[in-house]
Amino acid sequence: ANYTSGGAGSYETLVLDELIPYIEANYCVWGEPAGRAIGGLSRGGYWALEIAFRHADQFVSVGGHSPALLDIAAGPTLNPEYTVFNNDLGDLRLYLDIGIDDYLSGQIETWHEAIAAAGIPHIWALNPGGHDEPYWTGNGPAYLDWYTEPWSPVRASYPACTVQ
User: Fold this and answer.
1) 3-class state of residue 21 by DSSP
2) How far is residue 154's CA from residue 28's CA, in Å, rounded to a whole number?
3) What's the predicted TM-score (pTM) here?
4) pLDDT, tens digit (0-9, with 9 covering 90-100), for 46-66
5) What is d(CA 67, CA 122) in angstroms, rounded to the nearest whole number?
6) Helix and strand counts by DSSP (H, E) for the chain
7) At residue 58, what are phi and psi to the nearest 5 degrees?
8) Domain spanning 11-157 has what CATH number?
9) Span 33-40, mean pLDDT?
């Protein structure tokens, strides 16, 4: 993302072409887009948003937690600041949050306002805290509750495990 090409060797390629297929081949998981979510903190939030906005059909949810949307090298085909508006996000669920003392809070709040003005549904939270581990640790339970919200707590409601 920041300094990614979106091609060979990028986090996008590693996640989509290596990590997800490996997990789905070796672990008993719900191997469909409805069973996948992606999110990240800081630069990881940027990467999660980049990947999901470019491949919205592969995930049910994406979260950018204090996303470091620094427009350093990625252009409008990669940078989430643009792809959120330019790509078809379908039914992708979106969660954005940042600490009020985060050095990026003004930029992310302005971005949230533009997303809202464009009619793109999303959860937005401006919370006490900064761009640091205590902020993310303190908000971790809320993140996990949100990511798991669309999934049933009843195991029998999921596809059968085919991993041997």
Assistant:
1) helix
2) 15
3) 0.92
4) 999 999 999 999 999 999 999
5) 15
6) 6, 4
7) -100, -5
8) 3.40.50.1820
9) 97
Backbone dihedral region for residue 3 (phi beyond 0: left; psi -120 to 50: alpha; all else: beta): left
Name the CA dihedral angle for 52, 58, 63, 67, rounded to a multiple of 10 degrees.
-20
Q: What is the Cα–Cα distance from 128 to 84, expressed in whole angstroms?
A: 26
Q: What are phi and psi of 95, to 5 degrees?
A: -125, 125
pLDDT at 3: 52
The full set of domain ranges for the chain reads 11-157
pLDDT averaged over the chain? 92
Whether 126 and 109 have beta carbons less than 8 Å apart is answered as yes
What's the whole-number mean pLDDT along residues 122-146? Answer: 98
Burial 100-136 (b: 16+ CB within 10 A, else e): eebebbebbbebbeebeeeeeebebeebebebeeebb
The per-residue pLDDT for 2 is 45
Q: In what order do the strands lie in the sheet with 93-99?
A: 37-41, 61-65, 93-99, 123-127
Report residue 9 CA to chain centroid gap: 19
